[in-house]
């Protein structure tokens, strides 16, 4: 059914995409317990804020593509983002995997890899800030607790417990004990709250470079957080997470067999300008868990991101 012909607050559309595209969308989930994502026998469910209000989105594979059904005030806006969620807007034109054997092998091993574009700038920025300088499990636990306590229930026939990320005003007003109870320190909570005041400036219609520039005007947000935000929210194929504790070593080891720092990583990725995020994702899929360890796994200290 054409989404434009569906009743207000209840709409559906079928996107021509392989079933594997569902994994592209689910890859945006922040941990297995992310309360904005649920998987059931009836499909993959996602609670999401939109400019028109909250929405519940259900995705499920069909022989002719992926069916998306949405409920709530933001149903139509949510459906408009489905092609991006499924990676159907990702343009691989100009990507030269053959420039290095490791990248070529990774691309051949993952021929269906597409970069998703969630269109959700604010939730993505919040999760990126929460992931600064801590292990992923801790950041995901903080996100889960704060969204479960302060997010609104997803509209429509959503699974029990599915939530929508709180609006910026809610994050701005959270008292200190809520942050500390969720394991979020003053530097990260302060960054989220400062960003919340100017969140209206962070919109999905911006080019990645402009969105990165705007979010980096917020004290406590640096290049790593900006790159995480543009990569996930806008599907930025050229984002590079400078300041990551492990990524330079992975890129260096995969491409040269030696460790690298941020400058070395950027030098190694330069031949793929315009597609550096694509190379990073391919190398992470191909080599994560195979590279030598260079220190304690939990040593995550990073510069301001």
Automatic annotation (TrEMBL):
- Could you list this entry's UniProt keywords, alphabetically sorted: DNA damage, DNA repair
Where is it found, in Gene Ontology cellular component terms? cytoplasm; protein-DNA complex
- Under the GO molecular function aspect, what terms does this record hold? alkylated DNA binding; DNA-3-methyladenine glycosylase activity; DNA-7-methylguanine glycosylase activity
UniProt record, GO biological process: base-excision repair, AP site formation; DNA alkylation repair
SUPFAM superfamilies recorded:
DNA-glycosylase
Q: What is this protein called?
A: 3-methyladenine DNA glycosylase
